From TrEMBL:
PROSITE patterns: LYSM (PS51782). Gene3D superfamilies: LysM domain. SUPFAM superfamilies: LysM domain (SSF54106). InterPro entries: LysM, LysM_dom_sf. This is LysM domain-containing protein. Residues 40-84 form the LysM domain. It comes from the Bacteria. The lineage of its organism: Bacteria, Pseudomonadati, Bacteroidota, Flavobacteriia, Flavobacteriales. It comes from Sinomicrobium oceani.
Amino acid sequence: MGTSVSFGDYSPGVLPVTIVVRTAYFAKKKTEDILEETTEEYTVVAGDNLSKIAGNYEGVSYQDIMEENGLTSTVISVGDTLTITSRKKTGEKTSFEKIKNGNVGDEVYIVAEHFGIVSSIQVTLKEKEALLTDGGMLPVLQDESEITTIELCEPEEENLKGTHRYAKVKLRPKEDETLEEWREKLGEKEVMGYTDGQRSISPESYDRMITKEGWEPEYGEAIKSLLSIEVEAQAEGEITYRGTDKSNVFLNEEGEWFEVKSEEDGYVILADGTIEIGNVLDEKIRYYIENKSGNIEFVGEFIKNDNELIQLPSSFNFESEDANSSFAFSVKSGNEYRSYISPISLAAIIGAMSEANIEDVTIVGFSVEDGSSPAPSTSHKNGRNGDFRYLRKDKSGGALYIDSSAEDLDEDRQNDFNDALYKYGYTDLLSFKYNIDSEERLLNHSRHYANHHHHLHIQGFNPTTKNIGE
């Protein structure tokens, strides 16, 4: 038996006595820019403003300049000296974020981390209890081929070489008929009891009742398939898994199993503008989106309150596997109290932001916690209508008055966003006329409305929906 080693025992150029497969897991792939910072002094000249100055530097917004120089307003004077730190992209760093669940049809990464040189790593996925298989290996889809033995590839990314191997697969069989069988099995739910809205009774008590009118079933959680990862590594040397005498099966412990569920447990936002509505049996609502590559991705899980409204997080960033489908938003600081939105409206907003690929959306407000809409925005009832700041060329998310600063409006991106909002059901947009090059203009799908020179109002909500739940 060889000697196990830890990462701390390894020295470059020295082969370890024992090759260790440290862990294996399901993951999302994340790519981050590596930035090189350069700081310099800038002297303000005639005609300068902070936005104009920021435009001369890579990765710099006017807010960055204000923060770095301790400015409390955008007023600057000729001769002022500003310290400006620009950020230039010099490369990318790839990492993996572990995930504990996924849905049928999701694309996921299977990752193995190892110490020492391996010639190959293969994995198979095993169900805890036979549900989608007959007790054998779970088939998945890779490059349109159905496989049960998954070869993990050596990475091209420099920061992962020598320590990671991974593969991207879809959690589905090749045949659509089998896929529907999987969904049906995972969509089944146990009836836990019945309720009339005031009290609950057991299924046995319900069966004994003569009059059953007004009683509705109460469901438990949807059935899930629980997976572990079995690893087989090849190397010139002794291989151990997690250390001496450890099993080569990972995730097969309580709280570690990977859960495969049906995507019909929330909202699936399709690229054609349709919003599929699945089963939502508790306060947690899951959102999925069809990206521009045609793949379904999990966006996030949001909590609804007793008034059937979701409070938006102060900021949210979705990094799609297709970069052209990523989006991000933030809620205007101080307006968190009026950031409650209906679940279907959130689905539409997610679809529009992803369609337009916008990562600097600032949401001014929807409703307050109980769904009401106090002045001045009295039409924001039940979390369906809302306000957004106009999109700026500097992508800062800051305030913009298009009646006086139309030159800062990113007209193309704003019209793309308006088009996407319309596509996902917001048919009546209120904005404000503005002038560029002495030409009066109005944003797509909008009409001129008083006091909307600093925000876009969305209403007339009539989405295209499809019920895919029970």
